[in-house]
Fold dolichyl-phosphate beta-glucosyltransferase.
Amino acid sequence: MGSAAVILNSDGSSPQTLSFVELLPYLYQTFFGLTVLCVIYINWMLYYRRSPCAHEYRADNEKHFTDEKGKQVPFPSLSDESTLDLSVIVPAYNEQDRIRPMLDSCLNFLTDVSRKWTFEVIVVSDGSTDGTCDVVMEYVRQYGSDQIRLLKLYENRGKGGAVSLGMHSARGRTLLFADADGATSFQDLEQLESALLLLASNDMTECAKKLHAVVCGSRAHLETESMAQRSIFRTFLMVCFHFHVWLFGVRSIKDTQCGFKLFTRAAARILFNNLHVKGWAFDVEMLYVAEELKFKLVEVPVHWTEIEGSKIVPVWSWLEMGYDVLKIWFKYRIGSWVIRK
């Protein structure tokens, strides 16, 4: 027996019963109206809500750093010529417990007498509410602001936003993005530098000119071991995410999410001027743009140790990243986002 609906007459007389077939026009009109509203909303989100070109807002008080004497000094710009060999960008959000050993390892390696490169470390506090900034300022007073600087963001921008603003404040002809947890050994930087040297035809001065290259640290060689330590469900989600990235995002790099990547200055200028995604999936957009522009991309195995205190929330963060990856592909495909060269 078919479904029916009861509708009262306007004069209050006995109700009439409508069959499902008679209700179809009303259902169709409702569905059509909702579809129109959805189309209008999606159109507004994709075309009118923001510019197709990436834009990074930066408050006036985020354009300066405090030196070892307490003086406010303006940051340089990524558009300027390089004045150092290497800039290390470290995004940090509430990392007071993990950043100290990371900075000790980083600075001990970079100040080794066997290394001839000049360097700077820029720690980007992404709206931290703990003692992260105080810890970093201890190192500023110890090493001097020419070697380590604090970029203090007063609002949380997400990891991608923090890395982008740090890159825009750097002086190096090569720029390294490194996670604050210190999970990757800094000794592996030499492997990334060697790979970059090969791309530059053994002439590192090319890195300050027109060489567009990215060398990515990779944990892909550790995947079998890590899968053995994970639950079946988490392993399934990881495999699905990697396939999702390969299908909609990046195909030349197996491990897009490793927080240890080395850029030439020319590459960083373009990539971080095109960064729309501010969350965990910013690496995917960055490498997606690099592939679209035919940049030189290399993946180098690195030593990696899992450090407690990760800000990634299992399952939820992966779902968020999966959505962002799909959004990256979709928005570039329909022209809602465009690449500025």
Q: What stands out?
A: The CA atoms of residues 44 and 50 lie 9 Å apart.
